[in-house]
Amino acid sequence: MKTITSKLSPPTTETHMAYIYQTRDGRHINYECGGTCTEHERKRECGGCTFCLGEISVVNVFLKASWGSSRPTFRRWPCEPCPTCKPKLERLDEIDRLIYELNKEKNALL
After folding, report:
1. 3-class secondary-structure state, position 41
2. DSSP, res 107
3. pLDDT (tens digit, 9 = 90+) per residue, 45-86?
4. Taking Cα atoms as reference points, which of 36, 40, 25, 27 lies closest to residue 1?
5. CA distance 76 to 91
6. What backbone torsions phi and psi does residue 12 show, to the nearest 5 degrees?
7. DSSP symbol at 25
8. Which residues contact 24 (CB under 8 A, 6 or more apart)?
9. Sheet holding 28-33, edge to edge
10. Closest of 52, 49, 51, 45 to residue 17, by C-alpha
11. What's the CA gap between 9 and 87, in Å, rounded?
């Protein structure tokens, strides 16, 4: 598992958050920060976005509070796509528009 320590919000003695992300191909990334970064900033530091990095668990190291899931959540929205995902998301949006238009035409014919 690759570990990344935030440069934007490094862990401190007061706040220390640990996030575990999973990529779409199954690799895991352990991301540690001070807790002041937005979701987009955290995932950008890991080299991805909400579409290609799914959150598996969050741990507040000092409070020993955690949340986790066996299934990572990959979201199209809200997403500030990384360069790799941008063309994929644009194509998915185009497909959604085409499906909407075809369904509209289908319903008009019925």
Report:
1. helix
2. H
3. 999 999 999 999 999 887 778 888 888 989 998 889 999 999
4. 27
5. 12
6. -125, 180
7. T
8. 52, 54, 74
9. 2-5, 28-33, 17-23, 53-60, 65-73
10. 45
11. 30
Residue type at position 89: L
- Four-CA torsion 91, 95, 97, 100, nearest 10 degrees: -170
Phi first, then psi, for residue 89 (nearest 5°) are -70, -35
* pLDDT value of position 13: 86
CA distance 69 to 58: 9
This prediction's pTM: 0.82
| Residue showing tokens 């998915």 | 92
**Count of residues making up the chain:** 110
Taking the alpha carbons at both ends of the chain, their separation in whole angstroms is 54
